[in-house]
Predict the 3D structure of the following.
Amino acid sequence: MPGWQRSEQAPAGRPTPVGRPLLSLTLASILEEVHAHSGAVYLLTPDESVLEMAVMAGMPRSFAAPWERVGLNAPIPVAVAVRERRLVWVGDEEEMARRFPRIAVVLPYPFALAALPVATAGTVYGALFVTWPGSHPLDLSDRERDHLTASCARLALRLERATAEGRPVRPEPDLLASSAAPATGVLGTLEAARMVARLPYGLCALDLNGRVSFANTATADMLGVPISGLLGTQLWASVPWLNDPVYEDRYRAALISQHVTSFVALRPPGDWLSFRLYPSTTGLSVRISRARAVAEMGRVESRHGEDDTTPRLVTITQVLSLAGALTQAAGVEDVVQLVADEIAPAVGSKALVVLGSRSGRLYVLGHRGYADAQILERWHGVPLSAQTPGTQALKSGVPAFFDSRQQLERLYPDRSATPDGMAAWAYLPLIASGRPVGTCVLGYAEPHTFPADERAVLTSLSGLIAQALERALLYDAKLQLAHGLQAALLPHSLPALPSIEAAARYLPATQGMEIGGDFYDLVPSHGLAVAVIGDVQGHNVTAAGLMGQIRMAVRAYTTVGQPPEEVMRSTNRLLIDLGAELFASCLYLRLDPAREVAVMARAGHPPPLLLRPDGRVRVLDLAGGPLLGIDAAATYPTTEVPLVPGSVLALYTDGLIESPGVDIEDALADLGRKLTESGDLSLNALADRLVEQSGAATQERLDDVALLLLRARPHD
């Protein structure tokens, strides 16, 4: 039995008889006694560490849909209540945003919540939560606390009895308010309908699910939908121009907060309508009227201190867009750019800094919005032991919001000595996998209040940013390692030879870690020169490591004086002896400018091109053997090719010529034309031209590209 279900003390007292339906009756009684307006009971699943919602009352279940099944380790009040075997109280929306941002980002409305375990001394059976409107006092009264605790204890005893008798309690139908009985002493139904029909503005009633249960004629006229098309439907479903999550959100806000809520909507082409929602525990009454001119409304809102230039809070669409974009962010700079493009404008931030944590210090990973980068030096290298808002947010894991400079400097007096030109700040700790990875600082040009819903959204978004940043830091570290490995395995420079001029280019594939198995080399040998180019299959560290072994083996066999065919045979046997599962192509040339010849051996590699001094290009169709690493008995015959002064040999890997949908013969012919057209350029300029014109330098590369150009110098 899990630890949270154990106790040394057995339950006392005789269990109360089980009622039917047990959960619904208990929940309804609790709501009535503590004057709460909604709640739910969860049951602990027998074989899982999961709380499953068994019944909900007072609100549509869709409001709590994300939490119908709650893991016991989730940062959700009912899960905390079970884990810690105590009552969890959340007094208002700001406390919800601070302690339970996952709930606050979905329900950013003023309400209070209490969650309790349903447990005996020895066993946990589930949990319960109830909510009150935002008008509830910040503290839970002793009477409410005592009644909730006693009710949950009684419910646990009844569940214990039901379990012992083999009558497990099942989920029950949700309790939504039923239609109220007709009130006495008021106008009769017919006369009331006539009175409402005469009103010049629209009146309609919505049930707790948002469905229209009554509408007068003015409502139909203003909405442009007949009454028959409204009854039984939700306004945002039956009225096309109200089909916006913003308007549904106002209905949810009114029900949860039990506060009067209003909004203005545009009925095309130019009629503005005002909607005012009056909630109760049985539903909502909606008053619809012509709105004042938008310009006039703007002036009134400004007089009330609202700035209609302030960006609207991040919408669910923006959150989903950001989440999708962050999954594709490769490096740290990508993450910084996405935060700057997606989040900062939505919340009115004018500048941002992303700080990373390494070796007990903060480091600036990226920034936007600061014209003078020297301002950021105060963040770079700050010890985590320092008392700054950035370090405190990271160490505590709690975001910090400062509405004004005075507020920040009151808590951090030293901050006044290093101003950054901003007037308000949000410090968001970036925690991924339970580990702090950095801090995101949003700066505002003007003093900025942070409502609870905005704090909740920013806190939740910081989790997405943290996960993306963790991946990006790992990617950048791997990329740096890969580039270092690639640089170590390829020659840093080509040797200067009196008889051969050389130029080389290498571009890794843009897929994966940007490291590959293509290689080249130029080696002086016994008064001659040896050139080699090859391609190990794959674009990863394994391919690069094998490429390094092949290159070193070729150098070693060359140094001891083996002829080209023996170098290829020895390298082939080495690959087979190593047990490598990868194959490699290779082209090996021994250059003898004094005799004006080149001796070549080929192992499944694309044929080289020879540009003659007269401008003609020849594809050298050489004899050869299979790929290296396939057949231990393979032989690699050689071919001798004339190499007169001024000739250019172009050695390349298939990444230079292969493109989807392009025939290899056509690609070779195109490469030959480019050699002819640009053959009079310097060798470095020619190498750049061939790479650029092939598209390899600008397009997404599915394969590595290696190019080695060799030009025979005239004899002295």
About this structure: Residues 55 and 294 are 44 Å apart (CA to CA).
